[in-house]
Amino acid sequence: MKTDKPKPSPNPYSLIPAPCPNPSSLFPIPCNLSVSDVKQFAYCPRIIHFTRTLSLKRPTTYKMDEGKIEHETTEEKEARRSLRAYGLKEGERHFAVRLTSERLGLSGLLDMVIVTPGEVIPVEFKNSLGPAALNHKYQLTAYALLVEDKWNRGVRRAFVYFIPLKRSQEVPITPNMREFVKDALQRIRKMIDSEAIPDATRHKRRCTDCEFKNYCIDRE
């Protein structure tokens, strides 16, 4: 079983792409979005408005710092473990994989990719008890599309590894999830171009710990 030697995890916020150009200009490649944009759009579209249209910096919280440390520790331990948590007997692990697709205008930093003779599997580490929320499943689907472009192989499933539990959850990559992600990329670009503030999420409980809640005057 081959394993890449873990490297220090880059700051995920250093990978935030530059603002999108105006679609009316002559750019041969669609404006570059991040996998995080897809995840946040599925959670609440206004987060994209604040970060991409208004260029507001997302505050760094204690929870984020703690999560980064846990990710780095998990990489080190993962390199020494078997692949039993993913139901596999063999596979080659790649850590902190930078992915970019000019075709999709999408980029991201994936925690781990497992390559076996039969498949390529994206894996995302989460410092939570699970289960995987819907926006996290769309995040994995976006990663799956990027992995397919890089390895030129189809991806049928992905995993979320929950650090506190030391357990994983399989996430099937379905045609409907693929279509949602592709549609989301188009909608995000149109939203950025229009500069109009979108409706907030219908789930008001999500606003409680949101770093941007002070900007949503209609949610006070």
Task: List the main descriptive attributes of the protein structure presented here.
220 residues; six-stranded mixed β-sheet; 19% strand; 6 strands; single chain; 5 helices; 33% helix; alpha/beta
Explained architecture:
There is one protein chain. With 220 residues, the protein is of the alpha/beta class. The protein is built from five helices and six strands. It has helices at 35-43, 45-53, 62-78, 134-151, 175-194; strands at 33-34, 92-101, 106-115, 120-126, 157-162, 167-172. Strands 1, 2, 3, 4, 5 and 6 form a six-stranded mixed β-sheet that branches. A hairpin with a 4-residue loop joins β2 (92-101) and β3 (106-115). α2 (45-53) packs across α5 (175-194). The longest helix is centred in the C-terminal third of the chain and has 20 residues, at 175-194. The N and C termini lie far apart (54 Å). Residues 8-19 and 21-29 have low confidence and may be disordered.
Mean pLDDT, to the nearest integer, reads 84
β-strand number: 6
Query: What is the CA-atom radius of gyration, in angstroms?
Result: 18 Å
Largest sheet: 6 strands, mixed
* Broad structural category: alpha/beta
Give the overall form.
globular
Strand content: 15-25%
Task: Give a quick summary of the entry.
With 220 residues, the chain is an alpha/beta fold. The protein has helices spanning 35-43, 45-53, 62-78, 134-151, 175-194; strands spanning 33-34, 92-101, 106-115, 120-126, 157-162, 167-172. It has 5 helices and 6 strands.
